[in-house]
Amino acid sequence: MARETMSPTERLWAAIRLEKPDRVPVVPTLLPEPAAHLTGLTMAQVANSNQVALEAMFKVFDEYGGWDSSYPGAYKPIQMQAANLDPMKMRIPGKDLPDDHTWQLVEEEIMKPEDYDKIYEMGIDRFYYDDYLWRISDLKPEDVPREIEALQASFEQFLTECSKRAIQPFFLGYAIHPFFTLSLMRSMVPFTQDLYFNPEPVERVLRRMTTDLISTQLPIAKASGINTWLFTEERASAYFYPPAVFERFWWPYTQEVVDAFWSEGIVTIFHLDQCWDKNIPYFKKLPKGSAILELDSRTDIFRAKEILRGHSCFHGDVPAALLSIGKPDDVEAYCRKLIDEVGGDGGLILGSGCSVPCNVKPENFRAMIETGKSYEFSKKMTVNAG
Question: How far apart are CA 132 and CA 309, in angstroms?
């Protein structure tokens, strides 16, 4: 009978190194909100307690048989704002929204054109804490260190829970792309107007933010000892902008960041929401093995694999809609296709497209996990029996 011959971490890194593991590694993006749904909690309960969020995530891990690496996420939304990870106004369940609603970000022009010069002079972190945060948040200055300390304590406990289950976090270091940060702070339409009609300040700030990001995040990633970090972008693809904008305002800074981390042996996990079909070929310019592309099912992962076969690892991309309203047989069939066509020669980490949706059907979530853990072994058993 076929059986596992690798540890979860060995399996994960075989896929990242574009080698063929004993079976595809499974890493669902399970955040507190779907964990609340799967454990019968309200969104307000996980949005207002690190401990509740953490316990919900690992309760799901244990009840569904576990997987190969865990996605860090035992946060309270307000802590993402306090830590300069979600630079927008928020609506939080139990406070601004009913208990059963997910927390929301508010698209609003907060950063003004004159703020580009401030960011360039001050750096994004100082600008954020001296000025910007107080435009978007009800937090008081004395609240910020308390919330950040609570978030750090939660991650320490997250590491302990991972260790109990003999797995490693999928990553620990995290940043959103400078381009995405500015788009969130300015909001979509004003930022797009800046790109076309006032591009020089944008470029100056992107250069400054890229340098600052490398100098602050690279030491954190090195100290984590995980050798992966997460880099999020949702608004730079050809879904939003033509190649000229992408090539001028996004790609050069991206290459610089990836090269800096790769020079220390650290792999960049790109969280790429929306359709990147026309941008995928650019990623072949990055060093082989330096990046994992985490796709949300809007990008054609099968075509992307053909372009980047043997060059980059993929994470994903079981569609949220399939997990929410499909049937277990549909989920199993899609996972099998992913494993055969994207992971057949290695380079696939099976997971959800973006986060596991908050209304995921339990039977569909189980089908994704169990298909990932059993499908390749079932193929080997069929061959041996034949």
Answer: 43
Q: Give the span between the Cα atoms of 314 and 140, in whole angstroms.
A: 41
339 token code pair: 């494993």
Lowest mean pLDDT among 187-191, 235-239, 378-382: 378-382
**Cβ(202)–Cβ(195) under 8 Å?**
yes
In 3D space, the residue among 118, 33, 22 whose CA is nearest the CA of residue 358 turns out to be: 33
Token look-up 């929410």 returns 324
CA distance 261 to 218: 6
pTM of the complete model: 0.95
Residue of 8, 7, 30, 12 lying closest to 354 (CA atoms):
30
| Contact between residue 287 and residue 261 where contact means Cβ atoms under 8 Å apart | no
DSSP characters for 194-256?
HHHHSHHHHHHHHHHHHHHHHHHHHHHHHHHT--EEEEEESS-STTTS-HHHHHHHTHHHHHH
Q: What is the pLDDT of residue 379?
A: 76
